């Protein structure tokens, strides 16, 4: 691994903040000089890069949103000539125009080293075999982890997503030590281990690096119990760089350490845009500090979390695990609710599986929420007979914990479609009638 990218991982807090401010000033100036969007946005706000003297001054600068990236599709946010771009990634564009991100050779090296740092922080060591079950292609997950595994000095097994039966065979036959995967797909892999009659706990995996979607402590406990490993959260998003922006570390579990030597975080009120004090929950915002191809200034992630003090051996601040996304929040009859709140309720019933879907409709003038959840595979005839009473119990738990009334339908194991990447938890049919 290139050690020059790790010099600040264990620096003193004072050294980290000094380097961070220098990099912040340079990155903002670089964005203004090289990217027409930032030059125009700063000028309209009456600001110059020289107005950034302290960390507090950053709050005066305008935000960057996904709409800005879409408006500059495909390459309008790039700060370098196209000839300097060595890789392109893009979002799926399922909710609008795709967002495109580019990388120079130096960006790829930094990204790879940050993913390697994340793997090491989770307990990985050179020589480990890492089974990468994130999707490859324009999504940053697969290739982001792939190059980080190589930079770490590990063996990469580029399984990608899908072909779940083969995933189990590869893990068992190759003796993988680490798996990188979305938590929902890891549960599908655990189900496939059970279907094949193979003990997942004896397969040799000791670490799971899970990301790309919010997940609850209950889901983590189920993964660790069934797979016989430790599951760690990794955080990232394509617009900022990809996976490797933050990592849950083995010596400070429960929150994710943000790699603040490369990304400066803020928490804002999602309604007002006001910067919130450390420890308050709000929307996460990032400014890149070292990116060449596509510097990003105050990018609104829509992810809801809070900043926490450093812990363990690193001076970087941590962030709480993602509660949800502000654009994933459902408003049901005036009540705000996140899918993870429903997931936490379902986890209170041990006979229910962690596979669920929320369906929102508006048959008349009022919203209606339906929750579909599976019995566990070991459910028997007595459970089937208990379907209606169990549904009523879950309805009461949902109402008591969220204030929302829901229709609950408990279905047979394997009924709900399994995701091979990010789980689709919400089907919103409002406005389609």
Shape: globular
Tell me the strand order in the biggest sheet. 4-3-5-6-7-8-9-14-13
Please give the radius of gyration in angstroms.
22 Å
Report the helical percentage: 25-40%
- Which regions have little confidence, pLDDT < 50, spanning 5+ residues? 1-5
Which whole number gives the mean pLDDT? 91
Q: Main β-sheet, in a few words?
A: 9 strands, mixed
Counting DSSP H or I runs of 4 or more residues, the number of helices is: 11
The portion of residues forming beta strands comes to 15-25%
Distance between the termini: 55 Å
Q: Structural class, from secondary structure content?
A: alpha/beta
Annotation, overall tally of beta strands: 21
Word description of this protein:
- The longest helix is centred in the first third of the chain and has 22 residues, at 13-34.
- 30% of the residues lie in helices and 24% in strands.
- Mean pLDDT is 91; it is low at 1-5.
- It has eleven helices and 21 strands.
- Strand 16 and strand 17 form a beta hairpin.
- The strands form five sheets. It has a nine-stranded mixed sheet with strand order 4-3-5-6-7-8-9-14-13, sandwiched between helices. A four-stranded antiparallel sheet has the order 10-11-12-15.
- With 433 residues, it is an alpha/beta fold.
- Helix 7 (183-196) runs parallel beside helix 8.
């Amino acid at each position: 691994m290139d050690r020059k990218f790790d010099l600040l991982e264990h620096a003193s807090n004072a050294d980290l903040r000094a380097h961070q401010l220098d990099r912040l000033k340079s990155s903002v100036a670089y964005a203004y000089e090289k990217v027409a969007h930032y030059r125009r946005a700063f000028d309209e706000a009456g600001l110059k890069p020289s107005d950034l003297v302290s960390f507090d001054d950053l709050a005066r600068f305008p935000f960057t949103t996904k709409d800005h990236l879409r408006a500059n599709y495909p390459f309008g946010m790039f700060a370098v000539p196209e000839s300097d771009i060595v890789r392109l990634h893009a979002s799926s564009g399922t909710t609008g125009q795709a967002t495109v991100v580019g990388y120079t050779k130096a960006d790829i090296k930094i990204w790879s080293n940050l993913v390697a740092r994340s793997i090491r922080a989770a307990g990985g060591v050179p020589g480990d075999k890492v089974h990468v079950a994130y999707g490859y292609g324009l999504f940053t997950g697969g290739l982001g982890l792939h190059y980080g595994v190589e930079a770490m000095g590990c063996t990469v097994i580029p399984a990608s997503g899908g072909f779940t039966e083969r995933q189990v065979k590869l893990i068992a036959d190759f003796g993988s030590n680490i798996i990188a995967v979305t938590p929902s797909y890891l549960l599908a892999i655990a189900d496939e281990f059970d279907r094949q009659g193979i003990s997942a706990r004896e397969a040799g995996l000791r670490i799971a690096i899970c990301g790309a979607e919010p997940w609850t402590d209950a889901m983590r406990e189920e993964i660790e119990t069934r797979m016989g490993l430790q599951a760690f959260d990794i955080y990232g998003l394509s617009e900022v760089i990809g996976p490797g922006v933050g990592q849950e570390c083995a010596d400070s579990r429960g929150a994710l350490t943000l790699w603040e030597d490369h990304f400066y975080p803020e928490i804002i009120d999602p309604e007002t845009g006001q910067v919130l004090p450390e420890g308050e929950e709000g929307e996460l915002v990032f400014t890149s500090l070292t990116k060449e191809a596509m510097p990003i200034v105050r990018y609104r992630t829509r992810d809801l979390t809070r900043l926490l003090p450093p812990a363990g051996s690193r001076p970087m601040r941590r962030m709480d695990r993602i509660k949800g996304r502000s654009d994933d929040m459902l408003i049901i009859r005036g009540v705000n609710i996140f899918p993870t709140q429903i997931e936490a309720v379902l986890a209170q019933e041990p006979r229910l599986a962690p596979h669920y879907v929320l369906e929102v409709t508006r048959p008349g003038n009022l919203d209606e929420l339906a929750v579909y959840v599976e019995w566990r595979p070991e459910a028997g005839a007595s459970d089937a007979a208990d379907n209606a009473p169990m549904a009523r119990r879950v309805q009461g738990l949902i109402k008591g914990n969220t204030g929302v009334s829901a229709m609950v339908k408990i279905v047979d194991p394997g009924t709900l479609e399994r995701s091979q990447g990010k789980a689709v938890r919400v089907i919103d049919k409002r406005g389609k009638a």
